[in-house]
Predict the structure of Glutamine--fructose-6-phosphate aminotransferase [isomerizing].
Amino acid sequence: EKGTYPHFMLKEIDEQPFVMRKIIQEYQDENNDLKLDEDIRAAMKECDRIYIIAAGTSYHAGLVGKQFIEKLAEIPVEVHVASEFSYNMPLLSEKPLFVFISQSGETADSRAVLVKIKELGHPALTITNVPGSTLSREANYTLNLYAGPEIAVASTKAYTAQMAVLAILAVDTARAKGLELSFDPMQELAIVASAMEALTDQKETVEELARDYLATSRNAFFIGRSTDYYVCVEGALKLKEISYIQAEGFAGGELKHGTIALIEEGTPVIALATQSEVNYGIRSNVQEVVARGANAMVVSMKGLEQDTDAFVIPEVHELLTSLVSVVPLQLLAYYAALHRDCDVDKPRNLAKSVTVE
Ligand code: M6R
């Protein structure tokens, strides 16, 4: 039920702080320790490499998840687009663990990979919003996203839930391996929840930005470095699928290798600046595109902001910025689609779950 909301997408964007709190509650025991299936813990500890398989937005969550697992749990991770995996199957490690990320748990491209790797005898963990789904039933283990039903075709709360659960999984594995961590995922996710709330309260600001930057444009580019780049590809997917604006996410450092040729007078360029490590680099990229006429909109994080930034997100742990910086991008896509009279919840040519290969 949409309740008072005009669209499911807006409702689902707004639900994200609650989903964060639900995840904290579900993955914590009475002693405030992480609560995870012992078998999953063992599988994570035993594997020598993780292969994340997913499509669309879930693939984008996987890109961020790779960073969590590599940085915190020190296990090498490869992230693969499900539909491409079979054509160029990588050489597998000795003890691979396959992690399927899927909101619906019904994506046929991912299922095809699951069938194949099961034939090879490899273990699989599915991270899904639908525990009884095909990918969940057919894998050895399941982690639930607890995001509640996601109805809008554009995935929003499932994406942030996927990243939250991946962060918890990474920390749990790190602890099981006896690694020393100063990162407390539950405390940091609680801060993320509050930051999300602050952002969903700023809809009018984002609506204005959508009007100023995207009302008539045919295309739009998102640029970022490091984690911000992964959120850029997600922000671009959101915008293209519901507003039909041709949108792409690019790594800031790649601009000079070709993309900058596309910038002309008035081209909207949305830049993310939430990582101190790459702040200098992305700021130079913004200057480069502005010098070529781009209409640049910078979304930065508190502490790294500059006076000319269009939008500043509250400060959260650097590892978790993607869960927060995506919120204004989701809202930007929503309002851009709305202003163009697009069918926000049911964009043309798309289905909520893609059950054909
Ligand atoms: O249900 P899944 O997470 O497996 O779906 C994967 C993609 O089809 C899905 O994320 C798609 O890209 C969304 N429409 C993006 O908003």
About this structure: The pocket of 5-amino-5-deoxy-1-O-phosphono-D-mannitol is lined by residues 55-58, 102-104, 107, 110, 153-155, 237, 241, 353-354 (CB under 6 Å). Strands lie at 49-54, 77-81, 96-102, 124-128, 141-144, 219-224, 246-251, 268-273, 295-301, 311-313.
